[in-house]
Amino acid sequence: MQVILAEFAGACYGVQRALDMVDSLLEAGTSVTTLGPLIHNPQVVRKLESQGVRVAEDVDEVDSGTVVIRSHGVTPQVKERICEQGLAMADATCPHVARAQAAAAELAQEGCRVLVVGEAGHPEVEGLLAYAKACGAAADVVLNPKDIPADLYEPVGVVVQTTQTKDNLEDILNALEARGISATVKDTICSATRKRQKTAAEVARQVDAMVVLGGKNSSNTTRLSEICSQSCPRTFHVESAAELSRLDLDDCKVIGLTAGASTPEDQIADVRSILEVL
Ligand code: F3S
Questions:
Q1: I need a labelling partner for 75 at 20 to 30 A (CA). Which of 25, 106, 107, 138 fits?
Q2: Residue 93 Cβ < 6 Å to ligand 1
Q3: Average pLDDT of the residues in 98-118
Q4: Which one of 96, 196, 262, 263 would you pick to mutate in the ligand 1 pocket, going by the greatest count of ligand atoms within 8 A of its CB?
Q5: Is 80 known to be catalytic?
Q6: Which pTM was predicted?
Q7: What pLDDT does 212 receive?
Q8: Ligand 1 neighbour 163 (Cβ under 6 A)
Q9: Ligand 1: which atom is nearest the Cα of residue 15?
């Protein structure tokens, strides 16, 4: 079987950095607790648990060792509580997310009413909101133009969840313009998601079947699968190499492969080598 791997696939810079940080802590014999599962990849989370990494949902559940902050980042209040409880902190907030947090705080300090373009309830977005509010701003989450508050007043500052699309940001900005509102815009979109989607779609157009590897709980992997399905109806979202034997790949000569931003390289290599000998 010929396998075509998308040019950009698998763990993005921020996820790989978080994984490397935890590996280094474990190598140094540190007791590690992550605030929430480190990444949206059940296999990786299980492996880390087998290496002694605990997962806590709240700082209160941790009484010793080092607390690892995930690549999504946290609110400033959570960081304060980690320090107040005398715990060591390893901050794996992706530098792109940290840039968005700093932008939210800066807009708030400039006196803006802050709009965070993103998904309400997502940990990164909760963090961005909290950074703006901690600097005294009123802040709202907007995913669609209909979410823009009716009582909006200038000056308005816009900051964006790193995984949002440019199209979505444009929709919001056009809606603001239509209301005669000008905004200071901090475009904090990270290109990793866009590159994965673009190159996955390119591969999906050339193959008989497409395999999308990544956690079923990973929204970016699910989105990759949806995009590939649009041009390749035989698209399969699998979480591990163990699922490959169940796929209907009859008559396929060329298979495309991509992986979500929470999928480490070794998992992609495993799947690729199995597909190649089918
Ligand atoms: Fe960071 Fe972009 Fe990944 S913000 S965590 S490199 S998707």
A1: 25
A2: no
A3: 98
A4: 96
A5: no
A6: 0.90
A7: 98
A8: yes
A9: 5
